[in-house]
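ok here's Prolyl oligopeptidase family:
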Amino acid sequence: MALILLFQGLLFGGKTWRDRSMPIGSAAARAHGSFRRRTMEAATADAAADLRSDFLQVLRSRRRNPDVPLCVELGKPVKNPMYQSSIFPGSKEVMEACPKENVENFKERLIEENIYLTTEEGEQGCLPVLILSLKDTIPQRKPAVVLLHSSYKCKEWLQPLLEAYASRGYVAIAIDSRYHGERANSTTAYKDALVSSWKNGDTMPFIYDTVWDLIKLADYLIQRKDIDPSRIGITGESLGGMHAWFAAAADTRYSVVVPIIGVQGFRWALDNDKWQARVDSIKPVFEEARIDLGKNTIDKEVVKKVWDRIAPGLYLQFDAPYTIPVIAPRPLLMFNGAEDPRCPVPGLNEPLVKATELYKQANCPENLKFIAEAGIGHQMTVSMVKEASSWLDKFLK
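and the structure:
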């Protein structure tokens, strides 16, 4: 049974502020309160814009011609998808639990598109995209959902989710993240790219490079005649959850956000000696850094050096306490396993308290929800898939 944690942080220690020099209910007090709210809202909006600008600058800093025109090329279905690790038993069945409409002649009505978008120059600047939707008798703009795979998988892995959302009237989109799927040339491509990033400092394959792709993907999606540009959701599992989180922080066109087992406090993990599980998930790059730094073991200094090199600002200005709150007031549902060592729940206290205050200021506290599922580690569950589906339907349909 899920343990639901809904953070309701209060400013000023939970007390209601007012200027006691003014009579309660007076016009002056109401005007003062209204002015103060507007001032706080403006300051919050400015801070969010500054953070997005700073993050975009970091993303652009390692692009090969970031201003390359957005080109679309037709592709073909992938017959033998690339997987870089063994598949967790039962994980396919978890995705198949996503609610699916009983559509007559579903397979005949299902439209599959395979395309490539140019997001920058170079081989990794070719973004493979898989899109599923239902053929309509009358053309209409639909809600869209971007679905993002976890480490070492690919867009084809998400077929059950793509079909489920397409059956319910969505345009369902999946991509191969950097050095995955069609963008991988071996079963060690992602790990090799991380090591190369440490060595050369010219790419950011951990989270950031794919976030750049997702910004470019949004450029494309809002131009499609079958998508309502105001109704584009984004969700993902594990690494895909991180991609969803950071893409939504960077780009407000993602209007509903559901990261699944992806959000963590990177600084909190360093300060509380809880970084080991995350490091173990991509250990080769940390081992390479350990050797280069002349260390006998991987320690906190090694971890910080790696993050600084491959994802600048990850445990500093772009960490969860800053990038989760800027998603407000857009609907945000986050899932973690209560026992997940990679994304420890205590590390989310600060970002959740900050985000809760902003959602309250925007008069939409119901748009923020965090669920830590009891007894679950780093694993997406059936209940997460179903809750995510309901959340997206609630705000996109």
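+1. The radius of gyration is 22 Å.
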